[in-house]
Design brief:
The protein has 181 residues and is mostly beta strands. 15% of the residues lie in helices and 54% in strands. Strands 1-2-3-4-5-6-7-8 form an 8-stranded antiparallel β-barrel. It is elongated and about 55 Å long.
Length: 181
Amino acid sequence: MKLLPQFILFLFFNFLTNAIAQENPSVEKNLFKIDFLAPGFTYEYGLSPTNTLMSGAGLAASYEYSDYFGSTWIVSPFISEEFRHYYNFERRIRKGKNISRNSANYFGFNVTHYFEPITHQQQNFVNSTNLNALYGFQRTYKAGFNLGFQVGVGYSIAKSDDDGFYPYFRFTIGWVLGKNK
């Protein structure tokens, strides 16, 4: 019988801790991910409870069309920085859904720089920097499997006449490294 008050106290604090943790969900502080579709890696760093900064590098494939040069597929190395604001942690918790490893929806902005292509079908390709405003979501499952999708509008800056707005979308399949929180 002496253990009963301690057990009740334990249950109370356990309940209180879980309630506080669910009322104040936050992003993971450090996430390392390997991407498979655009081979590369990303590192996502938690800046605040709902904001992250993600850095990445890899290879991107794109389809280019020009009235003058024709069409071609291009594979280029790239680096990127992306700010994300996650907004639906509380709603996902209420619905009993997973929020670990930043499994949520977000608004964001990214800057990506594409270097000279490693494919040489198009001789007149120039390095470009793209600015993208986006909406996206990512889901990471228990074993670390990660899916992501982004859609938005972008603006390309290049040393040519190809500057301009374009529709932006990205789909990722990857693996988050490390243990689940």
